Amino acid sequence: MKSFLLFCLSLYVVAAKHEIYDGYVVYEAYPKSIDEIELLNDVANELGLDIWSHANLDKPGEFFVSESQKLPFEDTMKSIGISYKVTVENIREMLELEDQKLAAAATSSRNSNTSRLSLDEIYTVNQVNHYLADIAGRFPRVTRLVNGGSSVEGRTIQYLEISTTGIQNTRKPVIVLQSLLHAREWVTLPPALYAIHKLVVDVTESDVLNNFDWIILPIVNPDGYAWSHSNARFWRKNRRSGLMIGNFCLGVDLNRNFNINWGTASSSNVCMDTFHGRGPNSEPETQVVVNVLNRFSGRVAMYIDLHSFGSMILYGWGNGTLAPNALSLNVGGVRMAQAIDAVKWPQKPNYRVGNIVAVLQYRASGGASDFAQANGIPFSYTYELPGLLGAGSNNINSFLVDPSFIRQAAVETWAGIVAGARHVWNVL
Ligand SMILES: [Zn+2]
């Protein structure tokens, strides 16, 4: 009887898990000019919408809209004359499908796979910490696990140093790779863990291991990431609370919090997904990244911040102006994109490379890769990994992960990182 009750309880928990997204839909909107794109972005910000994908002239904008926002959204679109349609009626079904597929893949992987890094599942915070500790324990000559600091809720933010010569050699260039600054972008985690695997366990590109020291920070935002597993799959920010008296919204968008043009193209509204925080570098998660860059000041040759989605490699500045070395940044970006495109799944789009504003037609301040670039790192990039394209009859991109793509995401992103590292080495 007791086990039956537990069984019923677990079914209830599973069924209730995505309740908060009841009534949410995904819209696509189709602006036809740069002016309409800007108008659409303005309107979306005014309505406080969660913009999943910014529109450009080649692709529609994608918006995640709650039940109460539907009518205002549709009325506004009609009044400004931009056509739109609903692409996902019931997001909860897609979330439940994602849960089922990931759980099934993880179970079969544990039964059959003897390698220690599973590329059939999305690790939780604890699994990642376990993996990092395991690597550091097994390969003490080339790795060291560092506690970079604590998150708002007190979780440890860890990164792995990888060096064949001891990390102290100040003449050796460093590459910094990070993921999960944005909590819901789950597909970015396996590539970061796979990079560790390819630099430590299964080394087939020994030049990039020997030529560089590596810093790999797989979960910059552990609180948000844990929350996206336990409570809200589409959570993006960290979990900073107490930001505004009488206001229950919480969380800071860490990729708007860095001390670079802070507050100029982000939201001052704590309820928005692009809320920039109380001040530049105010968040402990941001500070961990800042400290890493300071610690290796003058040595970091390339910085890659993994995000999803959209199949893009972007560089600064987030206000649309170009860094003095923009041409060189572009060449490096193109090399990486070509390497990824050469091994990508045919049904996925080719990567696009460019300045963030030129590619996306929207400005963003306080971004991590802009901060890195401003701090003298010559090759600083934001990757936007491919989204899950097509769920059932819906041909849309989303943050959801199909387990069949996890290994591919890891392998193709690694191809890009290797191409980038080799390019940087050749031009240093
Ligand atoms: Zn992101």
From TrEMBL:
<dbReference type="GO" id="GO:0004181">
    <property type="term" value="F:metallocarboxypeptidase activity"/>
</dbReference>
<comment type="similarity">
    <text>Belongs to the peptidase M14 family.</text>
</comment>
<dbReference type="Pfam" id="PF00246">
    <property type="entry name" value="Peptidase_M14"/>
</dbReference>
<keyword id="KW-0732">Signal</keyword>
<dbReference type="GO" id="GO:0005615">
    <property type="term" value="C:extracellular space"/>
</dbReference>
<dbReference type="GO" id="GO:0006508">
    <property type="term" value="P:proteolysis"/>
</dbReference>
<dbReference type="InterPro" id="IPR003146">
    <property type="entry name" value="M14A_act_pep"/>
</dbReference>
<feature type="domain" description="Peptidase M14">
    <location>
        <begin position="121"/>
        <end position="424"/>
    </location>
</feature>
<keyword id="KW-0862">Zinc</keyword>
<feature type="signal peptide">
    <location>
        <begin position="1"/>
        <end position="16"/>
    </location>
</feature>
<feature type="active site" description="Proton donor/acceptor">
    <location>
        <position position="384"/>
    </location>
</feature>
<keyword id="KW-0378">Hydrolase</keyword>
<keyword id="KW-0121">Carboxypeptidase</keyword>
<keyword id="KW-0479">Metal-binding</keyword>
<protein>
    <recommendedName>
        <fullName>Peptidase M14 domain-containing protein</fullName>
    </recommendedName>
</protein>
<dbReference type="InterPro" id="IPR000834">
    <property type="entry name" value="Peptidase_M14"/>
</dbReference>
<dbReference type="InterPro" id="IPR036990">
    <property type="entry name" value="M14A-like_propep"/>
</dbReference>
<dbReference type="GO" id="GO:0008270">
    <property type="term" value="F:zinc ion binding"/>
</dbReference>
<keyword id="KW-1015">Disulfide bond</keyword>
<keyword id="KW-0482">Metalloprotease</keyword>
<keyword id="KW-0645">Protease</keyword>
<dbReference type="Pfam" id="PF02244">
    <property type="entry name" value="Propep_M14"/>
</dbReference>
